[in-house]
Design brief:
The protein is 62% helix and 0% strand. The N and C termini lie far apart (68 Å). The chain is mostly helical.
Length: 296
């Protein structure tokens, strides 16, 4: 089309006289058709390592679509390296048990990805069935520490089902789960407790007093183990945590008009935390006052 327009425009600029029109020799103009450019990138012409590197930027869904829509890519999108890297990026658990996974004779690592994805969906409906599905496929063992590692490293699990599984069905797994927390050199106790309880939101998980108390016991022990230099025993950490929770409740409850003062908090907490300085307890009070309660 561009070549035709160019010819027509040149004829318009140099018109043929009327007298010469009848005698003008006919000129056949060859119009070259523009070369058709394929929309398919020359991925198949690249070295396999380069092509795999490019495809590694795709998500699992995009990888499946690319293999279905673009037939020359179908073999490359099934590559085990791609799918095993996707498994490790989606589930950090696979990094820790990589040797054990590689020892098994998987049909393909794409199948492994689909199994782990299916297990996560099952867990969101029935946590016990989800863990059982992974065990049936020899991805998880029945060891409590192995299950705890999977739960602790899988971020996309629903918190309600996680609380349900750990607090109602497997308190032994909860103990190993908390042991995976690292509180070393974290001296601001309210911040550490607040971050820990975000994994077990009380309202979202409908936690009762016994369950919340169990979480505090496990947390207090772990915090005391990780910070021996603080000189705080498990009982003292537990009592401080309870005081912080009560203080947050006092600050946020609309029916409590006379809020607890710093002096009152220090006096009340000091009775159950022998050896803890007033300045330390005062910093605890300021943290709740400025940032908010530890229980959300």
């Amino acid at each position: 089309m561009g070549a035709v327009l160019a010819i027509l425009s040149s004829q318009a600029l140099n018109p043929i006289e009327v007298g010469e029109a009848d005698h003008a020799p006919e000129k056949k103009v060859k119009v070259s058709k523009p070369e058709s450019k394929s929309s398919l990138p020359p991925l198949t012409l690249l070295p396999q390592e380069v092509a795999i590197k490019i495809l590694s930027n795709l998500t699992a869904t995009e990888l499946c679509l690319a293999g279905c829509v673009i037939s020359p890519w179908s073999d490359m999108t099934e590559d085990d390296i791609l799918w095993f890297n996707l498994v490790k990026s989606e589930w950090k658990y696979a990094k820790y048990v990589q040797d054990r996974i590689l020892e098994q004779s998987w049909q393909s690592f794409k199948k492994l990805y689909l199994i782990m994805d299916e297990a996560q969906l099952i867990f969101s409906v029935n946590p016990l069935k989800g863990i059982e599905y992974l065990q049936d496929n020899r991805i998880l063992s029945e060891d409590a520490s192995d299950i705890a590692l999977y739960l602790h490293t899988t971020e996309k699990l629903r918190k309600e089902e996680l609380c349900n599984y750990l607090l109602q069905h497997r308190p032994d797994v909860l103990e190993d789960y908390v042991k995976l927390e690292d509180y070393s050199n974290q001296s601001v106790l309210p911040n550490v407790l607040r971050n820990f309880l975000t994994k077990f939101p009380a309202k979202q998980c409908n936690l009762d007093k016994e369950q919340l108390g169990l979480l505090l016991i496990k947390f207090s022990l772990r915090y005391s183990e990780c910070n021996p230099q603080a000189g705080l025993s498990q009982d003292i950490v537990y009592n401080i945590c309870c005081s912080l929770m009560l203080l947050g409740y006092d600050f946020t409850h609309p029916l409590i008009k006379n809020k607890m003062s710093k002096r009152e908090f220090i006096r009340n907490t000091r009775e159950v935390t022998p050896g803890v300085s007033n300045d330390y307890l005062g910093h605890m009070y300021d943290n709740i006052y400025l940032i908010g309660p530890v229980v959300r």
